[in-house]
Amino acid sequence: MSAPPVHNPEVPKLTEHLFRHEAAKLVSTLTGIFGIHRLQLAEDVVQEAMIRALQTWPYYGVPANPAAWLMQTAKNRALDLIRREKLFNEKQLEIAASLEALPDEGDTPRFDDEIRDDRLRLIFACCHPAISLEDQTVLALKTLCAFSVTEIATAFLSSEGAIAKRLTRAKQRIQDQRIPFEIPSGAELESRLDGVLQVLYLLFNEGYKASSGELIVKEDLCREAIRLGGLLAAHPAADHPRTHALLALMLLDAARIPARQDRDGNILRLMDQDRESWDRTLIAAGLWHLSQSSRGEELSEYHLQAGIAACHCTAADYRATDWARILKHYDRWQEVSDSPVVALNRAVAVANVHGAEAGMKALREIAKPEQLETYYLFHAVVGDFEERMERRQEAAASFSKAIELTGVAAEKTFLDERRRACESNVPYRPGKHRPKG
Amino acid sequence: MNSYTNSNGYLLLFRGTDWHLQMSPEEIQQVMGDWGSWFDRLGKEGKLAAANPLENEGVVISGKARTVSDGPFAEAKESVGGFFLLKVETMEEALAIAKECPALPYGLTVEVRPVAPACPAARMADEAGQHAMA
């Protein structure tokens, strides 16, 4: 005899990304109990709790405290497993006791602190130098952000098989190297923190450059990187100026995401963007972290990038952009980085301060120009400079080259419009140079 | 396909207990949210008589000896994960609702079965009797 369905007119709306966030939290909590070498088991248990919710909530409604429900379910499942399996032979009692000790109801502040520490331990474990940087990033997405293999493959333009292989490899390294589940201290923290920051930076960039695929996943990458960065900055062990600088740069860049495309998905240049749609809350948070980052003597690349982003965010309109100050930041950045991409961006600042001729000259002075030959943005910048110098034929050819080199549909469309504008000898205006038909 | 009206409603059987294994928490939440709205709407429209998930485990009783054995009852992809009993009048309506199931794109299958107005055996005997008299 089945119960009539409980009809609840007030269905609690699950907060956005609740499952992803809870899953990431639970994985780190359970990893803290099982040990990092049982990362896979923690992930499986958490996945099962989510699935349990999927099987029952649709019929019985959402529980009053979804997070506590998931916690309890994962805990029960874990207890089931360790009682049934021999694998925990010697540690079984200890682990069961730790699981039993987990609070059932909601979150107490004490518990929050523990979770936070567990999550940071997990970040540091995933970003161990024994794991290659590429694998670190994938592992971080899977364990810290609870992304599926499919989502990661989409984000990295890679195949699911390749991503799965990387995950296996990374987890194997954790086993073999007996990587500890802890936040290192002293001198080791210094070097390890850099790895952690770099993974977050890569995570953010992957989302920010919107290389292709599902835009939704992309924005999520940025959001997750910011969330983990916030966690890091709030912890005494990782509360360094460069942590705040990275967080500031991510917040200030993320604030401008909504303005980068118009409603039809067309790419908009900075000068064409509607600054009203920049996220003021994120800008305020970014500026606050930027001020936090200026304690001490440190000046990292994150500081310089955050400074550049702040110049853009604080300009009332495009014309008010303080390009001279931006160029100063790039000059200093170029002193510490030999990246040709940094030099390319600096050339844009040069052109905006001293004109397109000077920008071209800066491009010619780039130390390793051959690395840029296959980079579509290099040709797009060249085209832009040529167009400004009234050399429209050459500009059209440069835009064509850029089109060939990019895999992103929206970029292709944008560059093709720039090319058409040059060919028909009219100034470029967004959306005005579509092919007929 | 018959389209006789059926005052006893229609049963939607959700088949498949392994379609969500590769999903991320984010996707699981998405499906669940959509499912919740779907379920609620059907409730509001007065089309749901009953709905329940089924446990994944259970027992099967078989044979003269009434042997009791643990499941599994079927392969994971055929196993029933839950059901809706719909209060709708026609197969068409029931099918339309089944097609709205938010988990379909992920590999869940929905079986739609009319609930027989009377015991089918009795109905056949009945019909045969009427036939003989005709």
General description of the model:
The complex is a heterodimer of chains A (437) and B (134). By secondary structure, chain A is mainly alpha-helical. Chain A is built from 19 helices and no strands. In chain A, helix 1 crosses helix 5, helix 11 runs antiparallel to helix 12 and helix 11 packs parallel to helix 13. Chain A is elongated and about 75 Å long. With 134 residues, chain B is an alpha+beta fold. Helices cover 32% and strands 25% of the residues of chain B. In chain B, the strands form 2 sheets. A 4-stranded antiparallel beta sheet of chain B has the order 2-5-1-6, with helices on one face. In chain B, strands 3-4 form a two-stranded antiparallel sheet. In chain B, strand 3 and strand 4 form a beta hairpin. The two termini of chain B are 25 Å apart. The model of chain B has no long low-confidence stretch (mean pLDDT 82). Classes of the chains: A mainly alpha (437), B alpha+beta (134). Chain B: InterPro entries: Dimeric_a/b-barrel, YCII. Chain B: Belongs to the YciI family. Chain B: It holds the Pfam family YCII.
